Amino acid sequence: IIYIEPLIDLYYEHILNLLEEEKNEILEEILRNILKIILCDVETTVRRSAQKVLQNAEGDTNLMLKRAKGLQSLGKMILQKVN
């Protein structure tokens, strides 16, 4: 049987002994990974929403074109904010 509590204590002790610069590097890496997850979630949500919007035009070409232009504008705004 492996007891995990001593390992956790050892991990926390290791974290406490890290230099501030090392802690900052670890924190930056964690934040980068969180941001990647958030961006992936946003991208997936936008993609699914766009598919539903474009598929649900009920044969109206003008409506579909307006929706496509709206999505294009939304995409441009998102890209401007990201860059």
From TrEMBL:
Taxonomic classification: Eukaryota, Sar, Alveolata, Apicomplexa, Aconoidasida
Highest taxon, organism lineage: Eukaryota
Domain DNAJ-containing protein X-domain residue range list: 17-80
Originating species: Plasmodium falciparum (isolate HB3)
Pfam families (alphabetical): DnaJ-X
Name by which UniProt lists this protein: DNAJ-containing protein X-domain domain-containing protein
InterPro entries registered for this protein in UniProt: DnaJ_X, EMIR
